[in-house]
Amino acid sequence: MKGAKRLHRVLLVAGLGCGLLAFAGAQRVYGQEAAESDKPSTSTSSTTSTTPEVNGAVAATLATSVQPTTLSVGDVAKLRIEVTVPSGVEVSLPEQPLGGLELADRRVSTAIVGGQTKTTYELDLLALESGEVEIPALTVRTVGANGELGSATGKPLKLQVSSLIANEPNAEPKPETKPLSVMRDDYTLAWVVGGLLLVALIVLVTLRVQRYLKQRPKPAAPLPPPRPAWELAYEKLHELALQRDQMFAEQRGEEFIDGVSDALREYLGRRYGFDGLERTTAELLGTLERLRPNKLSLAGVTLLLEQCDLVKFARAKPEPEACQDLWNGAIGLIRATTPTPTVAPAAGPELVEPR
Q1: Tell me: the pLDDT tens digits for 124-180?
Q2: CB distance 35 to 126 below 8 Å
Q3: Is the dihedral of CA 29, 34, 39, 41 positive or negative?
């Protein structure tokens, strides 16, 4: 439906365009015919006056001509003045009234012809008034080689100037025309709506991005660095020292020895980079033999672990003094292999030695 309306509009516009072109062509032809009929005559016919009059000692010949002799207001008539004098005589054309015509341009040329000087004046005269216009007789002045003065005067010339509105009985200005309504496409509303939609789209995208940024999971806080192995070992041995009396009162000396063994195994594994709790005593000692850590007494480690295994696997009943010796041996081994800090460490829990 919309395509049919558009096609109908295109055909209507094409028809109007063809009509306007035809009307414009007719008007142009009519205007050309009217212009040709009203065009002033460009006939080369002219009025020529030759005056061999001599005033003074200098003989001068003056000839005047004008064309066209019939013109309209606003046209230009070309007046030609030819002055022939003997060689060595100067010629001048003073300013003179031109009979209702206005001088628009002036050109002068000089030529030597047969021992005589021929001076030609060409005047462009603008016709400003209609009717019969007469160009008065013009006079040129001459000055001989010895200062003799002379002059030559032509004859009046007549022109017929017609008015462009002479055929109108009551010529009046053309009435003001009403403005012509011209249909054109106006996209202002489309631009406004498009701009509003663009702003709304930008706002919507901004809100969605902000919502996404708020809802996305935040990265987890970095984990604190792992505590040194000797700090953990000291804490576990400290807890065992606090529970020692109660364990022995309850006949749980084996549990105390297991705690010392686990603390020592875990410390060695963390300190030197292996799993000390999942290795047997032989495997643990073999690993330490390969690593050969500095300041670590393998003999001391072997003695402590074998005594702990004796209690754990042989079901030997440990005496309190033996338990204290194992606890002291583990503390001494840890202190011997703890790195010397460059800065004084923060105060930790005070170790309580068993009595």
Answers
A1: 988 888 888 888 888 888 888 787 888 888 888 888 888 776 666 666 777 888 888
A2: no
A3: positive
pTM (two decimals): 0.39
pLDDT digits (tens, 9 = 90+) for 301-348: 888 888 888 887 777 777 888 888 889 889 988 998 888 764 444 444
Domain range for 267 is 229-337
Number of domains the chain is built from: 2
Of 139, 162, 185, the residue at which a domain comes to its end is 162
**Domain end point (choices 136, 162, 188):** 162
Q: What is the dihedral of CA 103, 106, 68, 51, to 10 degrees?
A: 100
Q: Based on C-alpha coordinates, what's the Rg of the chain?
A: 66
Which residues, other chains included, contact 90 with Cβ-Cβ below 8 Å and sequence gap of 6+?
A: 142, 143
Burial of 138 (0-12, 13-18, 19+ CB in 10 A): buried
d(CA 91, CA 150): 9
CA distance 178 to 314: 127
